[in-house]
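User: Sequence in, structure out. Go.
Assistant: Echoing your sequence, followed by the structure tokens.
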Amino acid sequence: MKKISLKIVNREVFQQNLIYHFKDVNYLFFFNSNNENPNILAVSNSEKVVKNNWKIGFISYDYKNHIEQLSSNHTDNISFPDEFFFSPQLLVEIFEHQIIISFDDKIYDETDLKTLVHQLSSQEVKKSEVLSVKMLPVVTKENYLKNVVKLKNHIQQGDIYEINYCQEYVANKVQINPIDTYFKLNKKSPTPFSCYVKYNDKFLLCASPERFMSKIGTKILSQPIKGTIKRGATLQEDEQLKIQLQNDPKERSENMMIVDLVRNDLSKIATQNSVKVEELCQIYTFPQVHQLISAISAELKPEVDFKSIVHALFPMGSMTGAPKIRAMELIEQYEVSKRGLYSGTVGYIKPNGDFDFNVVIRSILYNSSSKKLAYFVGGAITSLSEPEKEYEECLLKAKAINEVLRLND
């Protein structure tokens, strides 16, 4: 891969134009950290994975069936594969006023790329018409509430301690502009693990606030989110709600149970006594919600490779519950849709082996061939859960998506 460094004037304009320019490639992944540097765009028409190059890709929730003796037999409305990785033919690291382009010079010409950057830096951003999509729940509210009660019974019987129960909303015969819809979602809900993914005719428009796992050197970090409350209408109400969340026994307990699960998962691949809880139930604020986030780190054993790490940690405990395998069996029993890429992970592995992967939540999924559009929302069910409140939390988590899709009902 050859490298060149170039100056840009306006990062927002440039990166949006860049995605439009490459919109017809087979694989396009855009990682948008919203104010963290740098953002990353990776494109390729080939599925080839090249040694000592970047590896970009995703792992769907249903990859669990390759790790444990589990199955997924429900309807999959979007149909992403269980996993996919590729090495980019062109990768752009986008800083505030500078970009670094790594490219295969058998495919791309350096002079042409310099000309392209100049053009994309100055042209106006494309805009499309405002869309309106009517999303319908796959599960009725009545059935959702009944299932929460049934799952609480499993908890009371000692079957599980906590379970992440999700529901899907779907629209058929929908035609959207995925790029424009993604940037509208990102404007409404800018998050640190946002991404735009094009995998052939399938799209992920993701506004995730959650990191699944990252590695720098031999240190691995996981930052599960559990615990949610709405934003206040005034500064005073906002502060009161933060205090309420910080002291809510139900919200804290669901976070701490997942922290224990992550500690246990990390211990399988960590050197002795290296697993540490760096943050416990810290409040982080996002445009629609306040969240409780914890951070657990460890030093990796020398012989551990990426596949071993995935098999130890995936799926992330924040999207399953605890104990993990029994929770996943009950998810299959009570949910009616295949999760697919939702509650999976998207990320990148650098040539030096460092990586960063998100949790796919707060996301729109779209299949441009079948014209189906979907999103999922869910939350942790514990012994303290109130079914009606759990349903309201789902609606709160879907607020930004519904506003982007112009839903007010």
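User: And one key feature?
Assistant: The mean pLDDT is 95.
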